[in-house]
Amino acid sequence: MSAPAAAPGQRSGADLLCESLLAQGVDHCFANPGTSEMHFVAALDRQPRMRCVLGLAEGVVTGMADGYARMAERPACTLLHTGPGLANGLANVHNARRAFTPMVNVVGDHATHHAASDAPLAADVEGLARPMSHWVARSSGADTLGELAAEAVQRARTPPGCIATLILPADHAWGAAQAAAPAARAVPSPLPPQPAALARAAAALQRGPGTLLLLAGAALRAEGLELAARIAAATGARLLAQQANARVERGLGRVMIDRVPYVVDKALALLKDTRAAVLVGAKAPVGFFAYPGRPSSMLPADCEVIAAAQPEDDGVQALRELAAALGTVPAPPREWLAERRELPLPGGALTAAAVAQAVVARLPEGAIVCDESVSSGREFFPMSWHAAPHDYLQLTGGAIGLGLPLATGAAIGAPGRKVVSLQADGSAMYTLPALWTQARERLDLVTVIFANRRYAILHGEYVATGAGQPGANARRMFDFDDPAPDWVALARGMGVEGARADSAERFADVLGAALARRGPFVIEAVI
Amino acid sequence: MSAPAAAPGQRSGADLLCESLLAQGVDHCFANPGTSEMHFVAALDRQPRMRCVLGLAEGVVTGMADGYARMAERPACTLLHTGPGLANGLANVHNARRAFTPMVNVVGDHATHHAASDAPLAADVEGLARPMSHWVARSSGADTLGELAAEAVQRARTPPGCIATLILPADHAWGAAQAAAPAARAVPSPLPPQPAALARAAAALQRGPGTLLLLAGAALRAEGLELAARIAAATGARLLAQQANARVERGLGRVMIDRVPYVVDKALALLKDTRAAVLVGAKAPVGFFAYPGRPSSMLPADCEVIAAAQPEDDGVQALRELAAALGTVPAPPREWLAERRELPLPGGALTAAAVAQAVVARLPEGAIVCDESVSSGREFFPMSWHAAPHDYLQLTGGAIGLGLPLATGAAIGAPGRKVVSLQADGSAMYTLPALWTQARERLDLVTVIFANRRYAILHGEYVATGAGQPGANARRMFDFDDPAPDWVALARGMGVEGARADSAERFADVLGAALARRGPFVIEAVI
User: Fold this and answer.
1) Taking CB atoms and an 8 Å cutoff, what residues of chain B touch A120?
2) What is the tens place of the pLDDT at every residue in B373-405?
3) Assuming Cys at both sites, which of A413, A486, B394, B509 could form a disulfide with B493, CB separation 3.0 to 4.6 Å?
4) Does A33 sit within 8 Å of B83, measured CB to CB?
5) Which pTM does this prediction carry?
6) Could you tell me the domains of chain A?
């Protein structure tokens, strides 16, 4: 027989968990609950300070939590239903892990006495959580949930940002709790950079050309970029960002930085003369995939690799100390900063480049650009150096289906800023119900679907991996033009207005109108 | 540097894998490939006997493989892309595991030399696979893939049906292979029932009332049901099916069997006088969830539990031997068999019961009914005893999002039979792109969406778990009527025709028209 629930009016373990999350500064809960989470939902009812955002599938929930935290700079919690609910959300947890996004996952599970019954939904929740989490814990009773939640938040906020997964058996949520919620814990600081590593980095940078200064993480915000540009300009080192990044500050007045190319042969060609790589929050660049006859590392075999700052270190401080040690000029040279350039609106046939051009021309100041455009959006990055100042959020873990929820979460994490979501059509299929949350929450967000009706990247990868030319079976795996999805209908089905554009002029017009209004809007860009 | 690929024209490990799957009788591949699977896709191109079916998200892929195997009675293979691709498909693998569906998952992974690089998509594939698989193996080289595939198929076909997951590093797929594909292995037979267990079961059944004969698995097909009905009629034992079942043969002329109720208090009341439970392929009934103050087991504490046949045993043979031992009559009594009854078409307001009534009245002979209607469809089961003969496939693992892909796979596994998919709206959101595959494959399938615009079951569960009455936050987690999804638009967006019905007459008309035509159709039943 099961443990009794807290009496009406009595405080439950779930209440304690909620109080503790709020005390630690977590006040957004992205949720898709089930029966085992009903008492947590009841606790949310008693805690109006906790903003609850429903996602109609768990991949939406975890992707929103990622986007939220990238902009709000603190973790949200997710609420997921047992092992299968967690499993549905894992791909976007993977992406968040690769972005070093702080995230607290609360995963409900069967009551402890029910575990032996192997009920239909029973699964190895820990086993599912571990591959994508930095920290996994199961509560040991209602009264332990305050401390456990505080620890989860602290773990999530441990630099560079971690995934903490807390498993909540239903009877701990419904049991009576007497313990007080712990006071707010200190947010862990990034580690100071190591002097020896900085000295090696400074020496390599002083050798100038042939040295790569590779940035990731916080170093890609305005201050870090300015410091890095001063160093690169003074030494002649090459400045690059890693291939995929959680958040970059870009546009007018900001330091222009390119990324390591995705295409392996381009990356190898660009980096072939690199003799030393100084990493600030970045990892030494490797191929996104392996290809026959190609190396894993994008750096030459004899390249010296120096981590001036590991991802958990204070990368901006490392750059400050490097700049001081190298005696650079006090500001980046003008030619490193994006200046105003009039980009005309595109005309003629609608291409991926025309879409990028129109978005750059129309981008509002302070916009947040979320990019899961995969192969179609490669032109946006170099084109948008001179766009209005904006934040640029990217798919970091390669698991498609992040874009729509990432943009949704970013809009919730940064109210008052316009979000532009650049979205490949194949990837959009994975987490389509994110559009519904955009409508429910009245978010100010324009989604551009690059509708090429195919996994365009796979056509290229098929050839790149030496598989030859796609035949009939392969094309049936790569192309989804029969039937072609109707993105305007899909958006309407989710309660979001939309329009289709099949010329550059029409796209620019629709985009202008969509950006001028408030609320979510979807544009199907037929390219 | 990576291993070279097989030269053009040379046979690859992926070719060997495909040849071996075909030799073992696996000729359907449900797929959502990525870069690491390009050589497997190339091999599929050279094997036109392998039917490739694209799903636009991995939950669709694994759910289709489940539906296919339930009807075709042999496993399909799935093709999934690295750890995150597998993760997206795991919830429906969980459901398949709970249905004892045979399934071979081929999960591509990075090339072996690339693993040390911790590239963005790298994840612990084995760790993700194990919680939902009965067997997990990673290939050790291109030439091993023939034997490994044969073993995977044999494991999948080991009674009662297992999940076999084969991890395929890209370099093993692209490497040259000389080994021959192994010959077809024998399909493992179910184990013979144990005489001692049968003797105990026979003794308990002879005690008549107070003994429960609980069926699952193959015992729920026509022959098993007839044997069980003869036994129950002769002994006075109570005959029931377990709560959720992979496949039941039902309708006109077939034995009418009820299920253990989902609602715990109803199950406890029904079974309170049970003194012995004889299980044939079933597990002793437990609560789907735990509730405060309620037991886990649905049987009285002192009830004797006798497994006449474990799930891996030959349940039909067990029933044959029990019938012989008990000396029953040669055919089930007429009152146990469903007879023709004219069910009128419903009129008036459209309710869940009216939907069920119209479906029963209109159901074509030989239809396959796939049921993920959750709370809305509870009336269909008792109403449909007297419907035309049909197969009834159900969500077995409780992980919502199975219904649309299950129906899609069932239509592929049983061509020529009409599929009727009874689908809750909340659950349909999880794997919506299954509709696209229905359109692409021109499947003969009618989907009925129970559009109540809420997780209706959670309203009940909230109260049942003693959480009180839902407040503002809870209702925002349970209801998705703001905005209400437009299922006709969503279907159209996926390339499937649809219509909305908000009266019983209109629903019956639209259903009749949809069943009379060929091809996929979606009906939004606003209840």
Assistant:
1) 98, 244, 288, 396-398
2) 988 888 899 999 999 999 999 999 999 999 999
3) A486
4) no
5) 0.98
6) 13-174 (3.40.50.970), 195-336 (3.40.50.1220), 352-526 (3.40.50.970)
